[in-house]
Design a protein that fits this description.
The chain is an all-alpha fold. The chain is built from nine helices and no strands.
Length: 202
Amino acid sequence: MANEAVATSGRRHHGNRHGRSEEARIAVLQAADDLLVERGFAGLTIEGIAAAAGVAKQTIYRWWPSKTEILFDAYVLDAAEHFTVVDHGDLAADLRDRLRQLSTFLTRPDTNAVFCALAGQAQHEPAVAARFRTDVMDPQRERDRQPFLRARERGQLDSSIDIDIAVDEITAPIYYRTLLTKQSLPVAYTNRLVSDLLDRLS
């Protein structure tokens, strides 16, 4: 997440040192990212976030009911800042670019910590699981589908190929390493995932 707070017009926000509500909101999200990396999910508290962000605890509770909800908003903002659409006009190049973006994002200390914390909470909280699906995985899956859809429009991908299965095949190893084995995701590895998939599809 960008460290620089975003300035927007608005009424002065009482109870904190920030002049505008949006600045305070960004500060809270940044503080949550940083403290999660430093202390882990169990050690992350609303009080700690408020102190690090320089806002009143009541301000946070007015916007978010729990630390999990803060982390969701932090993740969504981080993803919006990180992912870009690049169309190389070639499926292999597009997929290599897409996997590089995904692997870089999921191995950053802050976004890795948030992703793993939310995935963990989703295992035993149905409401968290539902939002993890709609706010984290569904948007990412749509981003991952785009190279295949563009290739199909260009006539580079046969209409009989199931795009959802192809997305599963190419991204599952990345999530496996991110959540379970904690192995690195070098470019050589993600490029190999692309070449192996395209060999199977050809």
